Amino acid sequence: MRAYGxxxxxxxxxxxxxxxxxxxxxxxxxxxxTLASTADWMTEVAGPTxxxxxxxxxxxxxxxxxxxxxxxxxxxxxxxxxxxxxPLIDRATFDALQELFRxxxxxxxxxxxxxxxxxxxxxxxxxxxxxxxxxxxxNGGRGYVCEAEGCGKVRISAEPLDEYIGERVIxxxxxxxxxxxxxxxxxxxxxxxxxxxxxxxxxxxxxxELARAYGKRDLTLAEFKQAKAALDxxxxxxxxxxxxxxALEELPELTAEGLEAWWQDTAGREQxxxxxxxVVKEVRVGPATVRGSRRFDEGRFDIxxx
Length: 306
Known about the structure:
The protein is mainly α. It is about 50% helix and about 10% strand. The protein is built from ten helices and eight strands.
């Protein structure tokens, strides 16, 4: 998939798209508009991203942080030097944008150091197959623990495991075939989230219809309670899907370069967790081979990919 503003060769500029990026930079730097409002403006005026999705603050920031838009690249020493891509904006504008983003990040404070990527059932016990539960450890850290009755034999420090899983996910997504698979999973889950949103929009009507049926004595009290409980359960499930849909909207364009930069520079707690669980179906964790050992042992777990 090409990057917005350049053709598929990554070199040739697309003039109309370049003009929109220049205008977006002007809104941020001269008009002092927010990144969120500028992303909305891009969707309304420039149209969707190259993947056909609305612009999000994350997607726009990632594109404006890419040195290629100024005709630059990063060398092995981390220095910006002339690159092969045709510039879309001038160097002064690019530098001003980077300083703006740095100021904004400092204003937001430091991000939490640790994220539980495998909470919610993605991490399981290799012995009993039950989900591992995030818990505090004796030394104040965080871990994943099997609390299943009759088992409880697996526990592992969460931070090194999650860090390793995150690295494996980004490495896996460097391959085009896996990016394509991720896009298919994302689109399917987005469709489910949209379906859930439509259900929530019509939920009040369902409840009123149920109340009318009970009022007319078409339903007994027991039937009414049973139907209401079923609606409440559907509501909880739909709300979970709707929240997941919101997180999916905040993913960047699905390119290997974009995902890595987003992961390292801008992704938040829920965003990282969303990406991991889009790619990882399950991580089965076995017991420590040496009781009480603190050594990180990759042989303890098995990653099942989607």
